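Reviewers of the previous submission asked for a worked example of the structure-prediction workflow described in the proposal, so we include one complete record here. The input consisted solely of the amino acid sequence. No template or homolog information was supplied to the procedure at any stage.
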Amino acid sequence: MRQKSSHLPVLLAEVLQGLSPQKGETVLDVTLGLGGHSASFLHAIGEQGHLIGMDADAENLEQAKTLLRDAAGEKTFYHCNFCEIPHMNLPLCDVVFADLGLSSPHLDTPSRGFSFRFQGPLDLRFDRTTGETAAELVEHSSEEQLRRLLRNYGEVQSAGALSAYMVLQKPKTTTALKECVEHVCGFRAKNVLPQVFQALRMAVNDELGSLRTLLQEGPALLQPGGRMGIISFHSLEDRMVKLAFRALSTPTINATTGAVTKKAPFVLLTKKGLVPTSQEIHANPRARSARLRLLQKTF
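From that input alone, the workflow returned the following structure tokens.
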């Protein structure tokens, strides 16, 4: 059974101020989630505006549709991962937004297998209609493949010993995986568990590959003056966003003269990224690692 969960949109004030959605604009929310950010987008763009929302999670998408049903404005919804953007006929947008974090139902619903706090199947897929589960990934992976996965996606220091034990035990549930980590890591398990679940989740959903696609395709969807904002939650994602936005906003310089030979078509709206206030973290502890980076197309 799906438990009822409350989900607070992260960095909402900063998102609205930085992206500044206006009456009549088109907003693309590629991670609609439960609709928290998009509810505010719709309020800002009004009845002449157009919200395009997509999400890989069909259950979250249906909840978001219900939340946003009575809001004014045109609304278009897609059940898909944003890695599919290159194959979609999307219009130019004034705002492109992504919140790369998990929604509360992912963490609070045992049957989704996202949390080591509950007994459940080791699933970890955002879209349960396609792809292999985390248990299936572990089942067919070699010790070396698991070691690289844990090291690259979770920065797990004991990746070698843990991957060897996981290949031996082949955990099928969240509890079985938790027991593997506790067996190998002992008292350090409480710090390693989030890293292990993150690594498997990122691999199952190809999160970095999807983000790479978004960073290539998202800016191209912006009209002149359009804004793009991405909220990331760990260093691997944030580094990709930071480097991509920096490259897009860097002009071409003549190596000999130092003169600008080609202006950059984008400008950074944030230098270091925006992070939650202490008040927001107190109200919503899951926001503590969030970082928002903003980009604007100039021409």
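The beta strands are 26-29, 50-55, 74-79, 93-99, 222-232, 252-253, 260-262, 266-268, 291-297. We consider this example representative of the routine output the project will generate in years two and three.
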